[in-house]
Amino acid sequence: MTAPLHEPTAEAAPSPAEEATVATADAKAVQGRSLGRIAWERLKRDKLALSGGIVVLLLVLVALFAPMITSILGQDPNEYHENLIDPLFGTPTGSLGGISGEHLLGVEPVNGRDILARILYGARISLLVGFLSAVVAVILGTVLGILAGFFGGWVDSVVSRVMDGLLAFPQLLFIIALVSVMPNDLLGLTGSNVRVFVMILVIGFFGWPYIGRVVRGQTLSLREREYVEAARSLGAGRLYILFKELLPNLVAPIVVYTTMMIPTNILTEAALSFLGVGVKPPTASWGQMLSSAIDYYESDPMYMVVPGLAIFITVLAFNLFGDGVRDALDPKASR
Amino acid sequence: MTTQRTSGRRKQAIAAAAAVAALLTTAACGGGSDDGDNGSKTGAAGFDAANNKVAQADLAKKGGTLKFGAAQDADSWDTTRGYYGMMWNFARYYSRQLVTNKAEPGAAGAEVTPDLATETAKVTDDGKTYTYTLRDGVTWEDGKPITSKDVKYGIERVWAQDVLSGGPTYLKDVLDPKGEYKGPYKDTSADKLGLKAIETPDDKTIVFKLPVANSDFEEMLALVSASPVRQDMDTKSKYGLKPFSSGPYKFASYSPGKDLKLVRNTEWKQASDPIRKAYPDEITIQFFSDANQLDQRLLSGDLDLDLNQTGMSPQGRTTALKQHKGNLDNPVSGYVRYAVFPQSVAPFDNIECRKAVILGADHVSLQTARGGPVAGGDIGTNMLPPSVPGAEGQKYDPYKLATDNKGGNIAEAKAALKACGKPNGFSTTIAVRNNKPVEVATAQSLQASLKKIGVTVEIDQYDGSQTAGIIGSPSNVKKKGYGIIIMGWGPDFPSVQGFGLPLWSSKYISESGNNNYALIKDKAIDGLFDQYVTTLDDAGKTKIATEINHKVMEGAYYLPFVFERFINWRSDNLANVYTTDGYSGQYDFVNLGLKNPKK
Amino acid sequence: MLAYLIRRLFAAVVMLVVIVMVVFGIFFLIPKWAGVDIALSFVGKQADPAAVEGVREKLGLGDPIYAQVWEFFKGIFAGRTYTGGGDSIQCAAPCFGYSFRSEQAVWPVLTDRFPVTLALALGAAVLWLILGVSAGVLSALKRGSLWDRGAMVIALSGVSLPIYFTGMVALSIFVYGLDLFDGQFVPLDESFSGWFGGMILPWITLAFLYAAMYARITRATMLEILGEDYIRTARAKGLKERTVIGKHAMRSTMTPLLTMLGMDLGALIGGAILTETAFNLPGLGQAVLNAIKNQDLPIILGVTLITSLAVLVANLVVDILYAVIDPRVRLT
Question: Which residues form the ABC transmembrane type-1 domain (chain C) (predicted)?
């Protein structure tokens, strides 16, 4: 059910209330160019958000350099260490899930793969899917939202109906269904890459209406503003107005929604892998680790706790950072 | 308690058990005893007490509710359509056959004994005619007698594969090899009994006339797909929702994937049935979507046993082994788990490359992935499961998989690769069902160990419900380049024919639903099978079975993982429990009883 | 108002047709494109060609998509008969399809499973509304206090936890560890206490996640509204703080909460997949997940349709309630 998917909708209150939301958003546009500066000043003062940001930065670095870090530690995410496994129970022989100087977070049951190495590699999948699906959603949402808001008429009707429709879709259900029927090789991709690619597209596709709604609303209100009017009366082309005048003013809401969407996407990826339709073995993913940990919740609780905490910390850091960015970009935020 | 010195691990287990017992002060049911291998105060019979022997037969009392739990529902409860071993086992509660497996532990349980029939077949005409006479007093759940025509109609249903898909089709293949009969639903004769190979001269007599002799024919009649079905009660594809009972119990309610309840069939008479003891009054099954929850219910004593009989999940197994060892049995299941190499996918057309994979694999690692020696089984060394006559177990080990090469023999594997013309290795794809975590684990183990000999493999997990269309289609296998397929196979009936014919006979290669994944076209093997079906003496059959197994292993088509074993749970309250080779090491359901019917 | 309702209902029907077509597309076109024969997944170990043909005929797999969709909708109102291989199966109206995997009509499955999911969603909703809204209001009123910070950190943590992880931890502590709850679903008509005991942990787990979200939204909205002119006016007029908050501020705060509640309930009713998986509840989510694993298209279609219906109805109800709560909104 991925409840968090719906979090952004609260701010993007649907149809009847939308007009009101749009009306109160005027202030944002007035800030103009200096918005980035002001926001940064604000963000710097928000310690929680900053620490969230630092954790996010660290995670990105860890994900980027996962192969290097693991090789420095002398581990490989797919290497078996069956000598560390009790053959009768299939669980690690050492205490706390086989934690040792060599295996800092212990090893997996049955095959003895190093959990730290798998967590580090898992971060790559989580962040990759989290970021790229947000990018897909932002691109689709921005383009379609601007088109709908700027041109109005039937374009607006069609886009709006499609957005309503997508929001009424049982999303997780559709994502699972889509991912599970996808063929194993696609466009020259094979193995886990196919699944990652499909997940990015599908999660992104179901995410765009949240951004699309906001962008459409903003465009609607901006369209009638003096400077757009002015540009128009000066004979500026539609495209010029769209990109030169409108886009800069849409940056703030888009940034806010993107930062809020990434953690949701990370959770969705984990949920898909948890349900068995995510990445394929031996690729490591946090959701997949959690799902195999169910079989050892009592005999090897560490195996469940580690990936659980990894997801928690990552999503929490993104949420803290996202909150901070929102508050910083929104002058009405109560600080 | 034994007075032996306890090892550190054992002490740990006891300490853990004691701590848990202290926590679970309210959990009186089931008992948290930490006693070992012997009978206990909770009443459990002891470790392996019901493995190939009867445990606590005299403690079974009449009455009570026998409670099954299951993580998976049957494929169908229709006697014609079911193919799961546990379904065949359970179906004996509500169906009877002319002959059936003996209600005895171990190997004896695989022998055939008369059920509806007064005695086993009178075989004449060089093994081509089988004649049976029905017992007196055998009745349906509405009190009407079971006639030879009901038996014939029930068997005819196997021909209606377009409506009643799923079950074994041996009877159809043997009685009507040319496929002339179209099945009872398209039968133009008035009584719908148009199948010529079966004659019913009177209500008590049934005669089978085989076009070609088959020495395992009576084994095939012991399958539940040979159960009688009464024509006026045949609801066709819906029959599995409420089969009309000929056995001691009948369906009271069934909601697929949720629960099932059987109650006594009051028309069934004990005197007419030499097999079934029918101890409990009611039998229930509760279905779970999560195996861990099922295991919890078993451990707490809420349920008596697992319907699926495939072993406990890792967590439940660990708890059970540490705290309730006396409730466990560790039978051999009759399944061989293996990897098979389709010869259509290069370089597996070359025997040396096949050998390289067999030799290079780490067999201990594969065994661990299957669950280790106790929960997974002994390292498999050949393709014939120990319960099949003619099998030699680990004694026949042509590639030394359980001895010298058990950790993988990199040098020999590389030599084989060189002989194959691939000295630097090659890359290929493993196909594995996505709904079997243990099989995925073995695929990963294979992937890891083959890397050491330069063979890189990619794992392709396919939808497990699509097995027939994906790996059962040779053209698809070739197209996808599945050089290694991970599967398991158990005997439909304990003979080399009931196990190996679909796997190794060139006649069984088909475009869909193929099971001869290796695409073995070996005249010697085909010839041995032909010889087998016309050999009527047991010693001769056994000898041929051994030969077939050797031929298959010499061809290096298969990499066996384990001769499967599993950890099976029986509650403190179960009595008259025993495993039987007739149902792949499962407990014989039909004669289970309860010690305390009120519980 | 009436015209508005008719328009919305019409849109909803169009929406449902589109959804059904999309589901058909996903499960028939994609496998076809990938070269997988669906009929083969419905037959057993010894796939007889006759069996494959029979399945294809009965399922109407040979028909074009639009014909299949049309048959499906006709079945809902008029019932349907499936024929093939000398067998015919009656599926009475409302026929939401027939599952050949379990040989049962979809409609009884839906009616059987729906109450479980509904109970899960509603019970959790009551809990999370009480918890989330009160925590959010308190935080807003005592902004910056230790309570506010504490509550918001907990809320943020709640939002960041995957529900199946919380569920697993809750199960292993409270059910398997401390044995406080039974942790097993018991149908309501069997025993109320058993049912309640089985539902309490899923309720709490689910409510924890949503309460966190609702607390955050409530706090933010409340803060915004407290800054509005009319609240200042009310205060200036000398109204009691309790009246200002309870009557005026709360009313406006309810509006976005209601939107969320509508969407969340709608989504949950059709797809509490993760919660139902974690706690083994025999609801719609579990049914549909199993159906996806088994490629049991009729069940997937049925659940998807019911789910989408639930979301659409929930949205409609929310919009109408808007007009009641907030006089500024007029339905046109």
Answer: 114-322
Nearest residue to B375 (alpha-carbon basis) of B581, B570, B565: B565
Return the H-helix or E-strand segment holding A172: helix A171-181
Paired tokens of B476 = 């698809």
- Contact residues on chain C for A6, CB-CB shorter than 8 A: 260, 263-264, 267
CA A99, CA A92: separation in Å to the nearest integer? Answer: 9
Q: Is B523 exposed, middle or buried (0-12, 13-18, 19+ CB in 10 A)?
A: exposed
Own/partner long-range contacts of A22-29 (Cβ < 8 Å, ≥24 apart)? A22/A217, A22/A218, A22/A220, A22/A221, A23/A221, A24/A332, A25/A217, A25/A218, A25/A221, A25/A253, A26/A221, A27/A331, A27/A332, A28/A249, A28/A252, A28/A253, A28/A329, A28/A330, A28/A331, A29/A222, A29/A225, A29/A249
Q: What pTM does this model have?
A: 0.81
Given CA atoms B475, B478, B481, B483 in this order, what sign does their dihedral have? positive
Burial of A104 (0-12, 13-18, 19+ CB in 10 A): middle
Pick from A60-74, A259-273, C304-318: least confident: C304-318
Among C residues 257-286, those touching chain A with beta carbons less than 8 Å apart: 257, 259-260, 263-264, 266-268, 270-275, 277, 285
Residues B34-84: tens digit of each pLDDT: 434 444 557 788 899 999 889 988 899 999 999 999 988 888 899 998 888
Domain identity same for C252 and C315: yes
Residue after which a domain boundary falls, among C95, C130, C162: C95
pLDDT given for residue A92 in this prediction: 85
Q: What span, in angstroms and rounded, lies between the C-alpha atoms of B31 and B573?
A: 12
Find, in chain B, the residue whose alpha carbon is nearest to that of A299: B315
Is C158 a residue whose pLDDT tops 70? yes
* pLDDT band for position C215 (cuts 50, 70, 90): confident
Q: Is the pLDDT of residue A335 over 50?
A: no
Fold designation for A45-329: MetI-like fold (1.10.3720)
Lowest mean pLDDT among A136-150, A229-243, B286-300, B391-405: A229-243
Residue C145 and residue C61 share a domain: no
A80 CB neighbours in chain B (<8 A) are 365, 445, 448-449
Q: Which domain-ending residue is among C67, C95, C123?
A: C95
Burial (CB count <10 Å: 0-12, 13-18, 19+), residue A45:
exposed
How many Å lie between the alpha carbon of B1 and the closest alpha carbon of chain C? 26
Could you report the per-residue pLDDT of A195-234, keeping only the tens digit for each? 888 889 989 998 898 888 888 888 887 777 777 777 777 7
3-state helix, strand, coil in chain A (%, to 5): 75, 0, 25
Strand-strand pairing, C104-105 and C98-99: antiparallel
**B vs C: CB pairs below 8 A:** 140
Residue C104 forms part of a structural domain: no
For C201, the domain range is 110-331
Question: How many domains, in total, are found in chain C?
Answer: 2
Structural tokens at position C99: 């599952």
Contact residues, C window 250-279, toward B, CB-based 8 Å cutoff: 277
ipTM exceeds 0.85: no
Strand, coil or helix: C47: coil
| Contact yes or no for C265/C125 (Cβ under 8 A) | yes
Q: Distance of CA B200 to CAs B169, B197, B205, C318, Å?
A: 21, 10, 6, 70
Best of A164, A169, A311, A330 to disrupt the C interface by mutation (most C CBs within 10 Å)? A169
What confidence tens digit (pLDDT) does each residue in A155-180 have?
Answer: 888 888 888 778 767 778 778 877 77
Residues in chain B: 599
Q: Is the pLDDT of residue C140 over 80?
A: yes
Q: What is the pLDDT of residues A235-291, one digit of tens each?
A: 767 767 777 777 777 888 888 888 888 998 999 898 888 887 888 777 889 988 988
The values of phi and psi at residue A13, to 5°, are: -45, 130
